[in-house]
Amino acid sequence: MRIDAHQHFWHYTREEYGWIDDAMAVIRRDFLPADLAQEISVAGIDAVVSVQACQTLAETEWLLSKASAHSWIAGVVGWVPLIAPTVAEILAPLAAHPRLKGIRHVLQAEPDVYMDRADFNAGLAQLRAVNLTYDILIYHAQLPAAIRLVDRHPEQVFVLDHIAKPAIRAGELQPWAQNLVDLARRPNVFCKLSGVVTEANYATWTYDQILPYLEAALEAFTPARLMFGSDWPVCRVAVSYVDWVHTVQRFTAPLTAAEREAIFHTTAARAYRLDSKSL
Fold this sequence. Notes:
Elements: E1 3-7, H1 33-43, E2 47-51, H2 57-69, E3 73-78, H3 87-95, E4 100-105, H4 118-124, E5 133-136, H5 143-151, E6 158-160, H6 176-184, E7 189-193, H7 207-221, E8 226-228, H8 241-252, H9 257-271
Helix pairs in contact: 1-8, 5-6, 6-7
């Protein structure tokens, strides 16, 4: 069993997906389960976690409907308005769906002080009651603010997306790598090996260029808290689905069988509570 812990579906509109700029024009179209089913079949991936790409309740409900229709969509990380006073009431019916596994707000689009907001933290605190993970989507410079956020919620399970988007194009490892180590000291935080090549030059990135970033993430989190994610279809601007799977396979080849199993299965299953009913 191999799990892709991070991918997206969408019906593309310029209004809802304005973050897809001209350099990413290749993904300015619909991406639906039928498209991904072909990709995972070729790559040998058995199940996926589908993550929000549009901050609406309608999208969360739509993703859950897709998970109900396709058994290989093992989980959904949706969006809810965490700053709303009524967030608990909004969460309740959504959390009743067995495939809702987590919530994400796009913090990379917010100032650091957003993570300090009392209403945001109050909303995030509601997730434990309904056993949902929180995905942290940030840029590397936001890691100190993310550490403060995590420290306010020591019992909450967090998953760091895209290894916190380091400055790969610029070839900068620090202070990202040290901040990643600091965050990883919190045992309630997991990390995804996803969204890496899209932080490099789309056309000219090489394995040797991204290797130090993969190694830093592995050293910080160890296989026990590191999981594979494709970031499909966003990854398509820089790499095909199967080639990203092969890249992570190449990186993990020197590890033990148990460590590879953790990165491609066990860690995601644990972080998102993907039990036998989900897989």
